[in-house]
């Protein structure tokens, strides 16, 4: 009697358009359109998207940037579709959904859909200050990039407590070492010619050598998770604390950086021409070389920056990749190394996900993999199996989805009608999932 036997194969791996059929591993997908890989194994259909707020956007023009700060969504949007005069910042108050019930008499419950219980809205952030603390408005037409960093909780006193706000009128000399009353030695990273007693509050002290009476387990962090810092290529860089947007003077002319990153407790501003300006340690508003700030120049059009481990920052240009080492120490001891003269990054595609540096270049999706050598990385293309599907399309922007361990890059819609505003409608999204192991 014949017996039927079932053989199962675990589904794993990404889409493969290159490998011959007979050489395809069992369980691999030949085509994965509108499907995504689970970070463990298997495939699932992409469920799609739901509006955060069902009401129309408040500005009327193109959306220029979206970020999340303290679990609140904020959106930058130009004020008009044609000839906008400013760009506004709005806090998003999302719709509140609930599951339908028999008493609702709503047919949506039969489809397993949620019902909007409370409609969402937008609240404009009007507290915008220029470099001189005067009220200001933002010029339209930018493309926003963001980073989050906490510059306030950057030092600890001898008793283990994080210190308070720095008094800008009295600072130590760079390199001066003082001894805390209970024995903790501190290295001062800010320069001035005035004296300050070591038992008063400061935020720029860096603990160099804890000798006695320092309790690592009981220090009190009175700061916060950090502020949002951003650039858009049309206005000065800014700091946003959830209430007020304050512009930053980088001392450059024009003061309109395109890219931003924070590493080594410095704020780095990237200018399109290839210059990277770095703030003083612990002070994102101080770009004066007298206080330890500085800059470094590349030989190509700057497209992205990304913070790496050990005080290393990856600097991407149109056709080159650099490693900037030693960002957390004195800049005269730092080093700019050309990592690859043939691989660069498209603007706004470089993202760090679970320690993996991912970016999109002319060769496709590329990964910066950390090597055993201190501060060094290797460059590896990871999209070779679908390269033929990526030919002739240009990436627009990338983002990461940490809950799903995914890097997502959107491409410009090649079918968009010529003449539409910015011509940046997007129709294709490449989803890359980092698999465990």
Structure, described:
- The chain is 1% helix and 35% strand.
- By secondary structure, it is mainly β.
- The strands form 9 sheets. A 5-stranded mixed β-sheet has the order 9-16-15-14-10, with no helix packed on it. Strands 3-4-5-8 form a 4-stranded antiparallel β-sheet, with no helix packed on it. Strands 17-18-19-20 form a 4-stranded antiparallel β-sheet, with no helix packed on it.
- Strand 21 and strand 22 form a beta hairpin.
- The longest helix has 4 residues, at 387-390.
- The model is unreliable at 153-224 and 416-424 (pLDDT under 50).
Task: Give structural attributes.
437 residues; 1 helix; mainly beta; five-stranded mixed sheet; four-stranded antiparallel sheet; 35% strand; globular
Can I get a quick summary?
This protein has one helix at 387-390, and strands at 35-37, 43-45, 63-69, 72-78, 87-93, 96-99, 114-118, 121-124, 128-129, 145-149, 177-179, 185-188, 205-209, 227-231, 238-240, 245-247, 259-263, 266-270, 275-278, 294-297, 302-307, 313-317, 321-325, 335-340, 351-353, 356-361, 364-370, 377-381, 395-401, 406-412, 426-433. The protein is mainly β and 437 residues long.
Count of β-strands: 31
Structural class of the helix and strand makeup?
Answer: mainly beta
Strand order of the largest sheet: 9-16-15-14-10
Low confidence ranges: 153-224, 416-424
What characterizes the major β-sheet? 5 strands, mixed
Query: What fraction, in percent, of the residue positions are helical?
Result: under 10%
- How much of the sequence is in beta strands? 35-45%
Number of helices: 1
Overall residue-averaged pLDDT value: 75
Shape: globular
């Amino acid at each position: 009697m014949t017996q039927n036997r079932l053989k199962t194969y675990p589904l794993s791996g990404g889409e493969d358009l290159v490998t011959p059929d007979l050489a395809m591993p069992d369980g691999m997908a030949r085509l994965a359109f509108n499907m995504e890989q689970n970070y463990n194994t298997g495939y699932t259909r992409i469920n799609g998207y739901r509006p955060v707020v069902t009401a129309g956007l408040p500005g009327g023009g193109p959306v220029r940037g979206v970020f999340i700060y303290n679990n609140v969504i904020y959106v930058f949007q130009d004020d008009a579709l044609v000839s906008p005069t400013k760009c506004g910042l709005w806090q998003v108050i999302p719709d509140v959904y609930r599951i339908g019930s028999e008493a609702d008499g709503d047919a949506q419950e039969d489809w397993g859909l949620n019902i909007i219980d409370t409609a969402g809205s937008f609240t404009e952030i009007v507290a915008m200050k220029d470099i001189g603390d005067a009220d200001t408005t933002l010029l339209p037409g930018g493309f926003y990039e963001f980073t989050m960093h906490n510059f306030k909780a950057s030092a600890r006193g001898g008793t283990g407590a994080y210190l308070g706000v720095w008094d800008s009128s009295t600072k130590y000399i760079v390199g001066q070492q003082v001894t805390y009353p209970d024995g903790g030695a501190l290295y001062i990273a800010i320069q001035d010619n005035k004296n300050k007693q070591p038992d008063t509050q400061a935020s720029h002290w860096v603990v160099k050598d804890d000798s006695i009476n320092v309790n690592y387990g009981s220090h009190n962090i009175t700061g916060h998770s950090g502020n949002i810092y951003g650039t858009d290529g049309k206005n000065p860089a800014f700091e946003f604390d959830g209430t007020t947007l304050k512009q930053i003077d980088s001392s450059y002319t024009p003061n309109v950086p395109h890219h931003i990153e924070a590493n080594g407790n410095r704020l780095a501003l990237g200018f399109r021409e290839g210059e990277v300006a770095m703030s003083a340690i612990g002070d994102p508003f101080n770009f004066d070389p007298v206080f330890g700030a500085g800059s470094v120049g590349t030989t190509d059009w700057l497209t992205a920056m990304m913070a790496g481990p050990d005080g290393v920052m990856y600097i991407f240009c149109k056709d080159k990749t650099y490693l900037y080492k030693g960002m957390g120490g004195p800049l005269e001891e730092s080093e700019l190394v050309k990592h690859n003269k043939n691989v660069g990054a498209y603007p706004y595609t470089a993202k760090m996900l679970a320690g993996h540096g991912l970016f999109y270049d002319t060769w496709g999706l590329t990964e910066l993999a950390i090597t055993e050598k201190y501060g060094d990385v290797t460059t590896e293309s990871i999209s070779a199996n679908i390269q033929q599907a990526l030919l002739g399309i240009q990436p627009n922007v990338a983002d990461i989805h940490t809950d799903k361990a995914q890097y997502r890059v959107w491409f410009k819609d090649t079918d968009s009608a010529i003449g539409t505003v910015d011509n940046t409608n997007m129709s294709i999204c490449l989803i890359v999932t980092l698999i465990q192991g």
